[in-house]
Amino acid sequence: MTLLDALPPEERPRERLLSQGATALTDAELLALLFGSGTRGKHAITLASELLVRCHGVAGLPRLDVDGLKQTPGIGTAKACLLAAAFELGRRAILASLKNGEPLTNPSQVKDYCRANMGHLRIEHCRVILLDSLNRVISDHEVSRGTLGETPIYPREIARLALGHHAAAVIIVHNHPSGLAEPSDADLHMTAELTKALELIDVMLLDHLIVAGPNVISLAESGHLDLLSSG
Questions:
Q1: Which CATH architecture group holds 4-93?
Q2: Residue pair 203/169 in contact by the 8 Å Cβ criterion
Q3: pTM for this structure?
Q4: How confident is the model over 160-176, as pLDDT tens digits?
Q5: Could you tell me the pLDDT band of residue 5, with boundaries at 50, 70 and 90?
Q6: Which residues form a coiled coil (predicted)?
Q7: Residue 160 to residue 155: CA distance in whole angstroms
Q8: Does the domain formed by 103-230 have CATH 1.40.20.10?
């Protein structure tokens, strides 16, 4: 008998999932189901809770690789690999949802995609999402990667990429590993230059998103894009 088996049936994660659905479970209970078992004297829910505290909540989990997960006492290679695989499957499911040929009509869908793709990265990356005239995803490209604090972005290269794929619109995304979800002066300057470069080839810059861990800000939603275009 495991320590979880000693709990009343109505408190066991598996039984609660079967009777109430996965959404009824806490983050720790969901992790405990993935673990399957705890360690000597510590059941899986306690082990999961300790990992969540170390990661500052569920949003921090995908930022840990297998070696990082194993730094938590009680999590060995098998449990760490299982978690890493689960996180990757979740990330791929979100990415696939944006690449199914449906038009992008929901801003939160794009944010979820960007968060899944870049929220866990530890150095700055820049990606470009190319869209057709119906706002369907044509392709998604990493165009640069840099350091902890910056990555070079070249508007002419992005314009050339858009032309080569016959894109009608572009969404640019980069991450801030620092966790600060605010555009820098350099971000705003680059966005203005990119807007001009794309206008020359009749391609629209729909948005510039900045990903900082679980937080994603949109320059279009914040009004920065309109100000830069009018300037």
A1: Orthogonal Bundle (1.10)
A2: yes
A3: 0.71
A4: 999 999 999 999 999 99
A5: low
A6: none
A7: 9
A8: no
